[in-house]
Amino acid sequence: ASDGTLSHVFSFQVKIALNLDNFTGLYDCDEPGYNHYNVNFTKLTNDTIQSDNFWDMGWKLKYILNDRGQVKIVPKTFNPDAQLSYTVSGQGTIDAATNKLMVDYTVVQKIMGSTLFATTIDAKKHTFVKK
């Protein structure tokens, strides 16, 4: 019989063996609705890699990886001109067995002028597969 006492619920997460050197080099980036294009990842620190070609624009973007199989974009704003900016953020997962990254990203565009206007113009998943 139950006396109404609540029990604790535990959850466990398996850590992966993460070697960032395995996530460097040339990758194929699949961007839905756009194309496949090359991205080169370089290691910056023990948990951060950098791409050289976000959005096929040649923009450098940092990604933080962890031993729980997660990846997070370090939010960054790109300013192609004085009237326009694009802020990128996102997160996803990594597969240490195949060195694959799957990252849900968002791009917010801001147009400067008499009033500030910002809108999400892209929100998709990049899938990076090592070449």
Describe it for me?
It is built from no helices and nine strands. The radius of gyration is 19 Å and the shape is globular. It has strands at residues 25-31, 35-43, 48-54, 59-65, 70-73, 76-81, 84-95, 100-111, 117-130. 0% of the residues lie in helices and 60% in strands. It is mostly beta strands and 131 residues long. A hairpin with a 4-residue loop joins strand 7 (84-95) and strand 8 (100-111). It has an eight-stranded antiparallel beta barrel with strand order 1-2-3-4-5-7-8-9.
Per-chain topology:
Layout: E1 25-31, E2 35-43, E3 48-54, E4 59-65, E5 70-73, E6 76-81, E7 84-95, E8 100-111, E9 117-130
Antiparallel strand pairs: 1-2, 1-9, 2-3, 3-4, 4-5, 5-7, 6-7, 7-8, 8-9
Q: What oligomeric assembly is this protein in?
A: single chain
Helix/strand-derived class? mainly beta
Report the count of strand segments. 9
Helix content: under 10%
Strand line-up in the sheet with most strands: 1-2-3-4-5-7-8-9
- Number of discrete helical segments: 0
Radius of gyration (Å): 19 Å
The fraction of residues assigned to DSSP E strands is over 45%
Average pLDDT for all residues: 91
End-to-end distance, in Å? 59 Å
Q: Overall 3D geometry?
A: globular
Q: What string gives the helices and strands in order?
A: EEEEEEEEE
Low-confidence stretches: none
Mind summarizing the main beta sheet?
8 strands, antiparallel, barrel
